[in-house]
Each structure stands twice: as C-alpha cells, then as structure tokens.
Write a structure and sequence with these properties.
Elements lengths: L2 E8 L3 H10 L3 E7 L3 H10 L3 E3 L2 H7 L4 E4 L6 H10 L3 E5 L6 H13 L4 E4 L6 H12 L5 E11 L12 H4 L1 H5 L1 H12 L4 E6 L3 E7 L5 E9 L7 E8 L3 E5 L2 E6 L2 E3 L16 H15 L8 H20 L3 E2 L2
Parallel strand pairs: 1-2, 1-4, 2-3, 4-5, 5-6, 7-10
Antiparallel strand pairs: 7-11, 8-9, 8-15, 9-10, 11-12, 12-13, 13-14
C-alpha cells in the first residue's frame, strides 16, 4: 500500500537512512534534510528526493504532510516545535527529548496547533509486545507474577560525531537504550509506584514497584567489546504459563508444551510485518492520511515514560528508591 503523502526526514544518520528507505516505498514523495551535504546529496540521488541542508528553510519552502525528526536527542525539541508551529504533523524518534520540560513543551505545542505528535517508541510495534499486552489485559494465563526485560548491545560507535557517547546529548544508556523497555512497561502496566535503579552511563538495571505480588525489572547495557551481538527480550511468568522472548522469537511454555504463540494469533495489519520500524511508519502514515490520533503510541503516554525515566536517573544518582505515584 502507498499513501498519497509527502514526508520530510530530518537527519541522514543510521536511523534517518532507515526512515528514508522505508518511507520511499510508503509515500508519494520524500524530502531529506541533513547538514551532512555529501551524504545527504548522495542519499537524495539514490532515493530520488529533494534535499535541504536547513530544516527552517525546508519548513518555509515545502508543505509536507508530516516531518520525521531523526536528529540527536538534544535537537528534538527545537526541530519539533518549529515543525508543529509551521503546521506539520510530527513523528519524532525516541527519546522524546532531553528533559521532561522539553517533552511537555513539544506536547503542548502539538495540542495548541492541533497537530499529531507521535514518539517513535518502536518496541510497541512488534508482534512480541502486542502479544504480551494481550496476555496481560485479557488474563488468558491468569495473573501476572514476574516480568523482566533486557536489552544489550555493543557501544554505538556508529552515531554521527559520537553523540551517543556524549551523555550530555544522549543521556547515556539509561535514556537512549533502557528507555525502550521503560516505555514498554508504561504501555503494559502504567506508571509504577516507585523505581530503584543502579548502574552508570553504560550499564543500568531498574526494579519497579507495582501491585503486591508482581516482580518487575529491566536491564540495559552498552558493552565495551567489539562486535558484541545485540540481544534483547523478556521473561514473563503468569499463574498458568511462562512466556519468553529472545529477539524476534517468542516461546510459550504451558502444560508441559512449548510453542510459538504468534503463529496462531490474529494480528492487525500494523503488526503483520516482522520489521517493527516498518510497522511504526506504516501506522503513522495511516494516522495522518485518515486524520485520526495515534492510539497505539499516544504522546501523553510517552510523556509518562519520560517521567519514569527521570525518576530512574534520580534513583541511579541517589542510590535510593524514588516514589512516583
């Protein structure tokens, strides 16, 4: 399916190039903006799209249906606010912003201008996440007892200018990598009563206080080892079953059997592709073309993720549990 839309992409780094490749097949027209002229022009020629080096100039000269912010986290707020004030919908890559205050400004600007803002929390668009969400909400295996998320990779040396290693710009592993699972927990269970986080700029582990009887935790790390393989997943225990995810594979252990539960689950079109980023972009295009709100990943909920992430940072620094609600 191709949408009759024009999308502008800000950034030609790793994620910006992925957006460009996918959106070139999803929408009628793509515009690329990058301050890396050599790479930007090469990509614009490859994907046959218009090119700008200044997003403010792009905002003045073009009328895209939506803008994708694929810039370093510390640049999200300014680029997003100006796009919204120029009359464009925005899909902003995670992390939302450098602070809760910036995130609130972005969200309030979207509401004031009556434009959609969605944060690209891509984990929400995987079959594994959607299946777990259904298991929790319909209690098909009884009460949730235990849930652990994990996400580990080598140090992201591929970031343009090394911005991910600059904690003042990226927030370190806590804000850039751990936040995937922080957001997943908010989407699945809402905000916890409290959080206790340990670690540092490259490793962290959080334990969350939810209702009595639930054990919930998550960990993340950037490993100081060349070619360390990325791996992530979850381990979840219900009263009557255990569910484990390792990468894209999900295994359900129940009554002495082990099976892939995704094979027989009826997913909507936004979860049928195994590429979560494709699902996310396809969904946002659908939202914009149909004039609806992004219910699968609402910005109000992602703001709660930022609030929880801030509490994680406070706990890590203080060495104490932080109460949230």
């Amino acid at each position: 399916m191709k949408y009759g839309l024009t999308a502008a992409i800000l950034g030609s780094g790793y994620i910006g190039e992925q957006y460009l490749e996918i959106l070139s097949g999803l929408v009628e027209r793509v515009i690329l903006c990058s301050n890396d002229e050599a790479k930007g022009r090469a990509l614009s020629q490859k994907y046959r799209c218009d090119f700008y080096m200044d997003y403010e100039e792009l905002y003045r000269q073009e009328t895209p249906d939506f803008v994708c912010i694929c810039l370093p986290t510390n640049l999200h707020c300014d680029a997003t606010v100006k796009a919204l004030e120029s009359g464009f919908h925005v899909l902003c890559e995670k992390t939302f912003a450098s602070s809760v205050e910036e995130a609130e400004l972005m969200l309030n600007t979207a509401k004031r201008n009556q434009k959609n803002l969605m944060i690209g929390q891509v984990a929400r668009f995987s079959k594994a996440y959607e299946y777990l969400k259904r298991c929790i909400s319909d209690r098909r295996f009884g009460e949730l007892l235990y849930m652990e998320f994990y996400r580990h990779s080598d140090t992201p040396l591929w970031s343009v200018g090394g911005w991910l290693q600059d904690v003042s710009r990226s927030g370190g592993v806590l804000r850039d990598l751990h936040i995937h699972d922080t957001d997943a927990l908010v989407g699945l269970l809402g905000l916890p009563e409290g959080v206790y986080t340990v670690g540092g700029d490259t490793v962290c582990r959080s334990v969350y206080t939810y209702a009595a009887g639930k054990s919930v935790s998550a960990s993340a790390s950037w490993r100081n080892a060349k070619d360390f393989p990325f791996y992530m997943g979850y381990d979840v225990v219900f009263e009557n079953a255990t569910l484990q995810r390792q990468g894209d594979d999900v295994i359900l252990y129940k009554s002495g059997t082990a099976e892939n539960p995704l094979e027989n689950e009826n997913f909507s079109e936004f979860f049928k592709n195994d590429d979560s980023l494709y699902n996310e972009l396809n969904y946002f295009c659908y939202v914009i073309e149909n004039g609806i709100i992004p219910e699968l990943c609402p910005p109000e909920e992602t703001l709660k993720t930022m609030l929880l992430n801030r509490s994680e940072a406070v706990s890590l620094k203080s060495g104490k549990e932080v109460k949230i609600c």
